[in-house]
Amino acid sequence: MIVIDGVQLELADVVAIAVGGQKVVLAPSAIERMAASQRSARATAQARPVYGRSTGVGANRSVTLDTSDASADQHGLNLLRSHAVDAGRALDRETVRAMLVVRASQLAAGASGINPALSEAVVEMLNADTLPEVREFGGIGTADLPALAGTALTLLGERPAMDGKPVPVPLASWPTEDALPFISSSALTIGQAILAHQKLATLMENLTTISALSFTAMSGNLEAFAPEVAKASESDATADVAAILRELVAGSGKPARIQDPYCLRMLPHSLGAVREELESLRITLERLAVAGHENPMVFGSVEDGTNGVAHHGLFHMSTLARRIDGLQVALGAACTTTLGRVSRLSDPAFTGLHRFLAGDDAGQSGVMMLEYVAAAAVGRIRANAQPVSLQTVNLSLGAEEDASFATLGSAQLESTAHALATVAGVELVCASRALRAQSRHPEEFSSPRLRAMMEVGFTLPSDVQDRDLRDDLEQAQRLVQESY
């Protein structure tokens, strides 16, 4: 059971809930914080206009709502129904679960003024795995309005759940005061980015070790990772990766060249850049997962007279979009060196083996086509690296004249993680085949991590005669996504 307290939420916990099906519970402190926020919002709304509570939204912000009669709650239902439209393919269960856990965590932060019972309903939906169907097109990086409005309609029983079944106990009503606060969030964008980030973190850790296998198979020159070189680097992350590689390839043998090609010599730089951007994105996501960014933000206490609201733009995920862009660019650049290693592993001048790591030099193609597959995947990664944070749009009669498109960035980051598993899988197949052909053995090396990855690679089929390598690659793709 993972406790949602609105103060801290580890990214690994989001994955455990979204992918592993861990159950969640709201902390009592979070429920009280939300209740205090609700009291603050109600008191403030009696004293001044509050966007979405006593006014319309978007270009209708100047329209004053009549909340004096029994039909007042119809405004909230109208808002949810009108904002629930989305389109495209339905998102997978893991992504929708990640959205729900992030939303529950954000609400627990206590800045929305929402009824705590609605957050509890989200938790019940998550634990029952009765999920809303969310489609890919709708958000533009300024709150995932369609996804969360659709979630509200599912909780109300107006929309069926993802599996076509109704929610077990639909909510009886949805007050106007709770409509905008519920949907004013980028929980889908953040949740999707968290899942992609965690996949990429695992992939890059394994790709670092796999690159060390390639370095060993090609008798690379360890001088590129020397402490003196690392100390002079412009980035702590570069120095850290140099130290990791130095440990991984210790005792790998005499170097074959005085100076290696960039795909080996620049490993600390290319992998270090990705490491640096992953860390920046991690910090941003951990903050966003517990940030009360609802607009307007509710603060203060009725009890001490400090209650109030602030209309703001924190929901505009421009920082997240830039962080994703930075990581995408670093990954796109790093893939150049990965392709370089795959290419050189096929070259007898670097391995002393047959061309394309084939069984002989009588015209067999060996792993030739794996380089093409890796290049196709790299093409996807580089296309995804085109900055989304430079995009913009003008909507709602000019009331919202910019957008971060962080939602697009998160979706592309997931696509990049999928493609990178292919790239890393190709290098694992090639490096493992080369080391096996060179009669290298895991026990030769002092690094437990290198030995473990070599043993993993040696579980791949050993037959080097020309054959269909699809199964080999699919197995390698699964292996590079595991933690060791």
From TrEMBL:
<protein>
    <submittedName>
        <fullName>Aromatic amino acid ammonia-lyase</fullName>
    </submittedName>
</protein>
<dbReference type="Pfam" id="PF00221">
    <property type="entry name" value="Lyase_aromatic"/>
</dbReference>
<dbReference type="InterPro" id="IPR001106">
    <property type="entry name" value="Aromatic_Lyase"/>
</dbReference>
